[in-house]
Amino acid sequence: MSHTVVARLQDALGASVTTDPDALEATRDDRSGWRSASLPIAVVLATSVDEVQAVMRIAHATGTPVVPRGAGTGLAGGAIASPGAIVLDLSRMNRVLEISDADELAVVEPGVLNGDLNDLLAARGLWFAPDPASRAISSIGGNIATNAGGLLCAKYGVTREAVLGLAVVLADGRLLRTGHRTVKGVTGYDLTALLTGSEGTLGVIVEATVRLRPIMPGATVTVAGVFADVDGAAAASAAVTAARLRPAVLELIDAAGLARVAAHLGDDELAGTPLATLAPGETFLLAQTDGAGAADEAAAIAARFAAAGGRVSTSTDDATGDRLLDIRRAMHPALAASGNVLIEDVAVPRSRLPEMFREIEQIGARHGIEIPTLAHAGDGNLHPNFVYTGDEVPPHIWQAADEMFRAAVALGGTLTGEHGVGVLKRRWLADELGDDSFELQRGIKALFDPTGILNPGVMFEASAPAPR
Amino acid sequence: MSHTVVARLQDALGASVTTDPDALEATRDDRSGWRSASLPIAVVLATSVDEVQAVMRIAHATGTPVVPRGAGTGLAGGAIASPGAIVLDLSRMNRVLEISDADELAVVEPGVLNGDLNDLLAARGLWFAPDPASRAISSIGGNIATNAGGLLCAKYGVTREAVLGLAVVLADGRLLRTGHRTVKGVTGYDLTALLTGSEGTLGVIVEATVRLRPIMPGATVTVAGVFADVDGAAAASAAVTAARLRPAVLELIDAAGLARVAAHLGDDELAGTPLATLAPGETFLLAQTDGAGAADEAAAIAARFAAAGGRVSTSTDDATGDRLLDIRRAMHPALAASGNVLIEDVAVPRSRLPEMFREIEQIGARHGIEIPTLAHAGDGNLHPNFVYTGDEVPPHIWQAADEMFRAAVALGGTLTGEHGVGVLKRRWLADELGDDSFELQRGIKALFDPTGILNPGVMFEASAPAPR
Fold first, then answer.
1. What is the rounded distance in angstroms from the CA atom of residue A183 to the CA atom of residue A165?
2. Residues A195 and A203: beta-carbon distance below 8 Å
3. Which of B187, B215, B349 lies nearest to residue A182, judging by beta carbons?
4. Which of A43, A150, A223, B333 gets the highest tally of CB atoms within 10 A of its CB?
5. Nearest Cα to A418, choosing from A91, A87, A89, A154?
6. Rounded distance, CA A238 to CA A207, Å?
7. Contact A182 B381 (CB under 8 A)
8. What is the pLDDT of residue B218?
9. Tell me, what's the pLDDT at B1?
């Protein structure tokens, strides 16, 4: 059967289809630490909407599962090989089809990297705001499929707010267009928003019309604070938001996380920064302000940091700001360098951030593990990280993650703020949603994908037992 | 049958049910100019979630249509009596349940008026950004049901972007909760966004958790420009956006609209404003800037207005700014005072605004009618207005509206930017969406409302012929 499917793909798509063992093998993981037990039957490196439609028609006709995959940088196992599946790789569909200065929008293929689009836009004074920490390596299709968050969401919104319209290939190969080239538009239900964050389970994104913004005028100002412990950093963060200050970036790294980053980067990388001389237990809070009031806002933030006991430094040159932000962005690579990492992604109302840090500490203590954590403090999104060795997540880490999820939901939060459910967190989906919502969500899935061929096992448990 | 239904409602809900002829009569229209041919069988003035659930359980058991209704200020006939229906009036559910300063959110019942919430918030330095021109009289439940737009959307987003979570009573009476108290959250499909703008066809909104913003610091600066014709105003608007300026408000009123507003308000209201001495054919463009860079941005805007030939005045006092904005907000009352009004609500990419104005002029000329128009120029949303006398929209006006819709879509735009489809625009829904999207949207409707009792005839044509 799979032989026939591959033959049909090859007939229709020729050289875009590969069954090369290395290519198949490469689709078994992403950046989540999860590793699929299965290989796909083939990888299709699609180069056009027509090719994507051809794949879906063959999959539909043969009942073959399809896993849409972009840059492979997902953190929840949402785009990895599943049993008997075709992996539909969209990374070669990476053309920027249009940039409209007048309408402040771009039309892109899904494989365009977030950072590449922003490089193109900078010369025009424009900017695509969604800013996952992975922007240099993650694709816009994947950003949309996960409704990616990032560092700027409290001020500039999540990916959903930057998506005006989509072209999506449906399970049976039809091409659906949603949305508009306008900021406003309320004709019918908002399928653009429904598809954003749907993790490849409702359709394959083949084109996106995204909203751009003018680059903020003036310099970005960076305020860095080093605190004796996580309570100090959390208190400073709370004081900033209580004062109605709205920095573009407000990132917190706890002591365990900071120690790992510092060790990973080494003394040379940290020389001259406030992190050059860290005492044990110290934590880091990084704010950036932008726009016309950036300097005043930064001064007000620095005062709150100092009042909360921080060692504070403020800089107005971009190089220093970028350097400090790069230290923050090095958190995931630093952890990945020391083992496999299960990244939690809980979000809580930001007022509950100090409580959530205490919960994390207690969970770590109960299980005898260190849980290096960073937080997008402005929006209450935390990434507690579990580092482990070996191919599989050990049971006690799953247990700790389970306690983490339940603590976040009990505080009014959610299982996943920005990474998505994927295969990693599907076990908790129904728990968070409740029966009525879960049933409606299954209904939406069945409406778009009646035969269940789109990314089975992602978000919802597959009907057949999924591999671990 | 309807007798039995009313008896069951009265048994369950007592004094919340009315069949008073005046109360029934009052639900036959909204602010759209559309008038239902039917009376409802009863009006329920619900005061609690329990009561809403009780209504839906009875409706579900008896197959009775239900029309959810808020403040009755809709502009598309989305909440007016339909044949044999219960009108479920939510205007008494108007409590603000919670305001969280720390998390910058409010939890409200659906009947809370937009303006009332903002009055409450002002003392705390907070603000609910969705700003329909009707904010003094429209309810937040209705704002969410229509995904209302308004004057500030280019800078501050549409209503969807301010809704974090909902409580919704489903067609069979179950209570569904969606979303979070956090800015981020990607667990499952985005039902909050799907329900926002669903016009009462998928469920009854009984509670909303909405996102608040800090009030922008500093004074608002207002720039008013009077231009010899609509081309001048449109050129000035295009020059502002091309310069990457981002005013909070950018409103354009054409000559016919301006003449109506001026006549309606009278000389006293206009005295001392730039509109006190209008030459025939003159048009109005109003910008407001806010935040730390407001003064600089206003100066840059004033320069563009002047360069495009405008008579320009700039003011930094709130009283003048409010007065000028009130003149803009008087547009709809001014038209309503002179007859029934069919309000179009097309949106086009803002670069196509001058073309759309030309289309409007040509359509008016073809049909021998004046079409007073205003535009949210910053986001390309236009309200061409058709004033008529008599109970029904005359055929030539429907014909002109049809041409308007097709022109907007041909320019890359949409049938409705912010008012919703309602009964007024359902005839065009499938034309804009196309067959595949229309079919999926019908599927979503059937999933949430399998027996079709929720607001039948709104958005989709009712299976039985709907009254005109």
1. 10
2. yes
3. B349
4. A223
5. A154
6. 40
7. yes
8. 86
9. 65
Are B100 and A349 within 8 A, CB to CB?
yes
> At residue A374, what are phi and psi to the nearest 5 degrees?
-125, 160
Give A4's Cβ-side CA count (13 Å radius).
7
Q: Mean pLDDT throughout A49-69?
A: 98
Task: Give yes or no for a contact between B374 and B333, defined as CB atoms under 8 angstroms apart.
Answer: no
Nearest chain A residue to B124 by CA: give it: A244
pLDDT band at A1 (very low <50, low <70, confident <90, very high): low
In 3D space, the residue among B64, B449, B198 whose CA is nearest the CA of residue A443 turns out to be B449
- CB nearest A182 (choices: B103, B241, B413): B413
| CA end-to-end distance (rounded Å), chain B | 24
Q: What is the DSSP letter of A390?
A: S
Yes or no, beta carbons of B194 and A194 under 8 Å apart: yes
Give the separation between CA A91 and CA A114, rounded to whole angstroms. Answer: 12
| pLDDT of amino acid B463 | 61
Q: What are the φ and ψ backbone dihedral angles of B454, each rounded to 5 degrees?
A: -90, 110
- Domains of chain B (ranges plus CATH)? 218-330 (3.30.70.3450)
**Binary contact (A429, B187; C-beta < 8 A):** yes
Determine the Cα–Cα distance for residues B411 and B417; give it in Å rounded to an integer: 14
Cross-chain residue pair A412–B182, CB shorter than 8 Å: yes
Contacts of B242 in chain A (CB under 8 A): 101-102
- Token pair, residue B207, equals 């509670």
Q: Which of B190, B412, B414 sits opposite A197 (nearest CB)?
A: B190
% of chain A surpassing 90 pLDDT: 86
Structure tokens at A403: 């306690």
| A468 confidence band (pLDDT: 50, 70, 90) | very low
**B347/A429 touch (CB, cutoff 8 Å), yes or no:** no
Which residue numbers in chain B have pLDDT < 70?
1, 463-468
Sequence letter at residue B322: D
Contacts for A285 with CB less than 8 Å, ≥ 6 apart: A224, A225, A227, A233, A236, A237, A250, A251, A252, A305, A310, A377
Nearby residues of A452 by Cβ (< 8 Å), 6 or more positions away: A65, A445, A446, A463
- With beta carbons under 8 A apart, name residues in chain A contacting B203: none
Burial A379-392, CB ≥16 within 10 A → b, else e: bbbbbbbbbbeeee
Rounded to 5 degrees, what angle do the CA atoms A338, A339, A342 make?
120
Contacts of B415 in chain A (CB under 8 A): 187
pLDDT at A394 over 90: yes
| Residue whose C-alpha is closest to residue B374's, from B157, B133, B153 | B133
ipTM for the complex?
0.95
- CB spacing of A416 vs B187 below 8 angstroms: yes
What single DSSP character describes residue B38?
S
Residue A463 has pLDDT above 70, yes or no: no
Interface test with A, best of B172, B189, B448 (most A CBs within 10 A): B189
The candidate with the shortest Cα–Cα distance to A408, out of A356, A367, A342, A344, is A356
pLDDT value at position B292?
Answer: 86
Residue pLDDT, tens place only, A224-258: 999 999 999 999 999 999 899 999 999 999 999 99
pLDDT digits over A218-229, tens only? 889 999 999 999
Tens-place pLDDT, residues A108-126: 999 999 999 999 999 999 9
- pLDDT attached to residue B468: 33
Rounded-to-10 torsion of CA B149, B152, B153, B159: -50
Q: Would you say how long chain B is, in residues?
A: 468
Spatial contact of B278 and B220, defined as CB atoms under 8 Å apart? no
Q: Which residues of A221-244 are buried (b: 16+ CB within 10 A; e: fewer)?
A: bbbbbbbbebebbbbbbbbbbeeb
Retrieve residue A119's tokens. 């490089």
Cβ contact (<8 Å) for B158 and A125?
no
